[in-house]
Amino acid sequence: MRPDWIPKDIFVYIAVFTAHLGVFLNGTFIAWTSPVLVKLTELHDNPLGRVITNSEQGWIVSIGVLGNWFGSFISGILAKNYGRKTALIIMSIPILISFAMLLVADSIWIILLARIAGGITCGGMFTVDPMYFGEIAAPKNRGLLGGAINFFLNIGILFVLCIGPYTSYFWLHVILIVCPIFYMVVLLLFVPETPYYLVERDEVKAEAVLRKIRGESDVKAELFQIKEYVGSKSDNHSKLSEIFNDKATRRALIIGCGLLVFQQCSGIGVLMSFGQLIFEEVNDFLPSDLSAIVLGFTQVTFSFIAPPMTDKFGRKVVLIVSHIGMSLSLVVFGIYFLMKEFGTVHSIAWLPLTALVFFKFMYCVGAGTVPLVIIGEIFPQNIKGTASSITNIACSATAMVLSNSYTLLKVSVGIGYTFWIFGATGIFATIFIALYVLETKGKTLQQIQEDLRRSKKSVI
Q1: Three-state secondary structure of the chain
Q2: Nearest residue to 438 via CA among 456, 420, 422, 424
Q3: How many CA atoms lie less than 13 Å away from 79 in the CB half-sphere?
Q4: Cα separation of 105 and 3, whole Å?
Q5: I want to staple 289 with a disulfide (CB 3.0 to 4.6 A). Which of 103, 165, 425, 446 is the partner?
Q6: Would you say the C-alpha torsion 358, 364, 365, 368 has a positive or negative sign?
Q7: pLDDT of residue 218
Q8: CB distance 126 to 75 below 8 Å
């Protein structure tokens, strides 16, 4: 008999959190550059036997986007034709190959190819995982379960930041190889297929899954709603031309792409990828490796705060507050480096880390979590795979441009002005969210589609 303190729908939390471990793998891929770039810019523990150039640094950080695009595209097809669970399992294989290649890498080309392979998993997870939790969660807890994506991403980032500087290049990759293997095993054991996918193929199994994840014996009403929703979309084609010509799906695409593009324009990708190297320039307060760990630890801690706020205050409010807060923190961060150019800043050496801790707090509150929650909610059944792929490609393309531009901007205008540019994008993000983003809190997927269709707002 289930104890009273255990929620009756506990299995939905187990299933979604297990699936979110795929985003943990993404976190290890993203943060890998922070400690490893330091190793590759020194001769000690460097598998290449030489120091890499600034240009090679930029390509190591950004070339994974090529894999990300492919992963986004192929995972959407896999999820549609073979199911969300199967897609998650298949998408965990490329990063296993990536870490194995990095383990034996002795040339820059092997490292670049490995980063492309890892990017396939990154694109696949960010495409399929929002689809998975969006279809398995109930409206009352979709914000909480979706918001947990950022927590698992940050755990993966912190994991690498903690072990990367203190283990050899070889043993770091041995440890990382174990992670995707473990993920595939727990996926097979604890994650069911979504009832939205199953209802068209095996209604009996869909009902059984629904009873298990809701903790209810009678789920006929919800099953009927799912059948009605899926049935209303299954007759529609999902050609790109038809997607863009339909008002509701066009608006959903603009919302999804816009939120992820503005998320990256905040500079979060640059901070994650170049974090330890950035802190090398502020060594007066803490060593660069410890500063990166502090930042990663605070980001994990703040990830606990965001999911409840998403369901309590709504998506739009937390997004607006998040972008305003991030912009203010980047302004302060930039001021430090501008002051450093004109005099001593030893007395305020604590300021950059403090500013970035506040930045990570505001990022976790909204911009880091809510876009993926909304993307898991706003697309109709027949185009979820294709649309999620498009939004992820837009996100990764932005990240690639910014990663390659960072070193150039830093040399041209300095770190201070570079992060002021990132901070300025928060103004445009706030305007976009206030005027165009749909509030989805507490609504069923069918209600969200109805709101998208009858909205009079359109930018195209």
Answers
A1: CCCCCCCCCHHHHHHHHHHCHHHHHHHHHHHCHHHHHHHHCCCCCCCCCCCCCHHHHHHHHHCHHHHHHHHHHHHHHHHHHHCHHHHHHHHCHHHHHHHHHHHHCCCHHHHHHHHHHHHHHHHHHHHHHHHHHHHHCCCCCHHHHHHHHHHHHHHHHHHHHHHCCCCCHHHHHHHHHHHHHHHHHHHHHHCCCCHHHHCCCCHHHHHHHHHHHHCCCCCHHHHHHHHHHHHHHHCCCCCHHHHHHCHHHHHHHHHHHHHHHHHHHCCHHHHHHCHHHHHCCCCCCCCHHHHHHHHHHHHHHHHCCHHHHHHHHCHHHHHHHHHHHHHHHHHHHHHHHHHHHHCCCHHHCCHHHHHHHHHHHHHHHHHCCHHHHHHHHHCCHHHHHHHHHHHHHHHHHHHHHHHHHHHHHHHHHCHHHHHHHHHHHHHHHHHHHHHHCCCCCCCCHHHHHHHHHHCCCCCC
A2: 456
A3: 31
A4: 51
A5: 165
A6: positive
A7: 84
A8: no
* Alpha carbons 212 and 136: distance in angstroms, whole number: 11
Contact 164, 40 (CB under 8 A): no
* Tokens 């909480």 -> residue: 144
Query: Could you read off the pLDDT of 293-340 as tens digits, one per residue?
Result: 887 888 788 777 666 666 677 788 889 999 999 999 999 988 888 887
Distance of alpha carbon 101 from alpha carbon 28, whole angstroms? 15
Block residue for tokens 């030893």: 346
CA quadruple 263, 267, 273, 278: dihedral, nearest 10: -160
In whole angstroms, what is the distance from residue 272 CA to residue 111 CA?
19
For the stretch 36-64, pLDDT in tens is 998 998 888 999 989 998 788 878 988 88
Rg over alpha carbons for the chain, rounded to the nearest Å, is: 22
d(CA 426, CA 363): 11
122 within 8 A of 389, measured Cβ to Cβ: no
User: How is residue 149 written in tokens?
Assistant: 């994506």
Dihedral through CA 86, CA 91, CA 93, CA 94, nearest 10?
160
Task: Give the predicted TM-score (pTM) of the model.
Answer: 0.75
| Count of all residues that appear for the chain in the document | 460
Neighbour count for residue 143 (Cβ, 10 Å): 29
Q: Take residue 314 and report the two structure tokens written for it.
A: 């709504």
Joined tokens for residue 37: 């770039």
